[in-house]
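Hello Y.,

Per our agreement to keep a running log of every chain we model this quarter, I'm adding this entry. I've kept the format consistent with earlier entries: sequence first, then predicted structure.
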Amino acid sequence: MSTVASAGVRFHSGSQIIPAGAVHTTPLGYDRADIPVGAPLPAPASAELVDRLSTCDEIEVAFDGRLGDTLLALAAVRAVTDWLRLRSARVIVRAMGPYAGLIARAGLITQEPDATSTGRRAVIGDRIAVEARAPGAAVSLICDPAAPPCWASDGRSHPDLPTRYYLALERRLGIRLPGTAPFAPVLTTWQSGLVEQLRSAGWLNDLTIAAVTATSWPERKDYTAQRYIELAERIAEAQQTRVQLLLIGGRTTGDVHIAAESARRRVQVLRLDGVAADHLADLFPHVHLVVGNDTGLTHLAAMTRSGNGGGPPVIGLYARHSHSKWRTGLPHHHAAATRLSDRMHQGDLCPVRDAIAPDTDVHMDAIPPAALAQLCLDILSGVKA
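Predicted structure for the entry above:
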């Protein structure tokens, strides 16, 4: 579902199916629904990739770049592990680097104590990590978000990055893999001391909204704490209830800083800065709604689910980048997008790669708190779920 809110802000539901003719796409070359799992594709495989990967008994998963890029690229790792399972191959899959703990939550790591390695290994990751670990590897796969196109198949487009990665590797491996949309793996939660700490201090009891203020591009993507506070105040007034707002910042000093602000009418504000992503992954399923700019912690919130599969709806805010490409593809991961973001979506464009002028739009100013609050209220009431 796509609807237009006031001030031209458009809401895009995570469950929306986008027809192939509505956006710029590349034909996948086959309808997945017509090909049994494990059957060869009508397009030829990359013989070099298949031959080299077939000899490997160890896979290294290594990402050293941005958290958001890493999380969305895990679908590529999923494609390789799905291919290995189809071949009944006994392969050690290890996660390396700063995100190893989070990657382990995705169910993609299959270390076997009794497995032996001949030293034939493959490396999957971003360019920085792969180039550092590739010497001596039999094959390396670089996950570059600019590389996989928006595929079209079965009469629909597949614009989100996890689906792009998965289908691109399916084509190269030449076999119908078992995965179906959504292709982004879900991260499981663990017992969290942070959640217990917040509950003991009286938080997570009322309607709780987590707002992600961390961003790698503050001059273009920062919605600002003040706008989030206004958003929470509007939701509290509309529902005549108390709202607890968690403002989640990035790791700027290396230290964890948790501080409560003075209460406002119906809104309590708690700032969490420098909290590790692993701990935030355990926190997100305990809130009622997550709102954040297009950044790694917002993607993390969408991909993290509790043990029973539950978790909050997530609304990403998109001013300049394609709202469809830079989402997880999960049905509860929605978007509030500007006109420019919609144009980037329709043309499968990137403002950096395609040199879109920086003053083309007004960035986050184009998403007023009043319009965003109405979208949040609709989702909380189930109208636009």
